[in-house]
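Why do we care about 3D structure at all? Because function follows from shape, and shape follows, mostly, from sequence. That is the central idea of this module. The next example makes it concrete: a single protein chain, its amino acid sequence, and then its structure expressed as tokens.
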Amino acid sequence: MKFLFAIIASVLIFTSMSFAFAEPILLEQLSPSEKILVKLEWPEVYPDEIYKFKVSFYDPNTGELLDDIRLNYNIIVSQRDHEVEVYEHNLATDGTGEFDVMFPQESEGPAEIIVDLRAASDNGHTIKYEEEVKFAVNVVPEFGVIVAILAAAFIPILLLSKSKLMTKI
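And the structure:
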């Protein structure tokens, strides 16, 4: 019995650790004018939890972070034509920005994050933008994690029970 408990506990710990240390997802899109490369980084997203998304802006020709300009932008997070979060009048002075997103319960499936570029200024010179860069994200159903953990926990139980039955016969 102790052996069985040890196997179940180790599987649960391993499974939960793999979810906790999952690599962030990184996507990049070039703005329609091809003047700004926008990168978006987020973790795997589940409903009813707060996640930090990161956005960064790069020069598409050099690949360097645009940390020497002031970039005004908006963030719109939507799912099924419904706005989940809206962050307006953001100012990136170091080429990056962060924002928190929480998808409501039962909101699994595809969602969209729009980075709405408004203006960039450098040494008093301002360039107006009216460009949107769109990213598709996927909200994973909560029960998927539970099913994965339960499946991982029951496989050793089934194997052990089958092996004990086979030795008794």
